[in-house]
Design brief:
Strand content: 25-35%
Structural class: alpha/beta
Largest sheet: 7 strands, mixed
Number of helices: 3
Distance between the termini: 15 Å
CATH architecture: 3-Layer(aba) Sandwich
């Protein structure tokens, strides 16, 4: 079953990403191992990067989150301690595969190692690497509806 959400501003998109991250952290089983991948599909300008910025905030990451379009991958430590919003993960990776042409290009990124670790991974333009994602990957589709309105379609997920 799929759910559809309508988002009406960049600020609202960030809030949606933040809330989604907190829900993912609450629902992750302590016995689960390996990365949890959130794959973001959709056209340019549909809100994927704004969602990722909010997602990082929901993990308690305070650094500025920049688009990884030109560097392809950015990593951030998920804060630990008493206020750790997400104790079952160690690192957050924000990856953008838009500029990659072939699956072989992924080898230099060390993506397989990232996916085998206890990480949260948000990937924009994920189609190229689909074959190596874990089966529990969460697929979100972003669509531009109007100038400031976006639609997110995703599997039913409580948050």
């Amino acid at each position: 079953m799929k759910k559809v959400y309508e988002i009406n501003s960049a600020r609202e998109m960030k809030k949606f990403g933040e809330k989604f991250a907190m829900s993912v952290c609450r629902n992750r089983k302590k016995t689960s191992t390996g990365a949890l991948v959130v794959a973001l599909e959709g056209e340019l300008g549909a809100g994927k990067t704004q969602f990722a910025k909010g997602f990082a905030k929901g993990l308690g990451i305070k650094q500025r989150i920049n688009s990884p379009t030109f560097v392809i991958c950015r990593s951030y430590k998920i804060p630990c301690g008493k206020t750790n919003a997400c104790p079952n993960f160690t690192d957050f990776y924000h990856i953008d595969l838009y500029r990659l042409q072939k699956l072989v290009d992924l080898d230099s990124l060390g993506l397989k190692k990232v996916l085998s670790g206890n990480n949260l991974v948000v990937i924009e333009w994920p189609a190229l690497a689909k074959k190596i994602f874990p089966p529990a990957t969460l697929w979100l589709n972003f669509k531009t509806i109007a100038k400031n309105t976006r639609q997110i379609t995703m599997p039913a997920f409580d948050f």
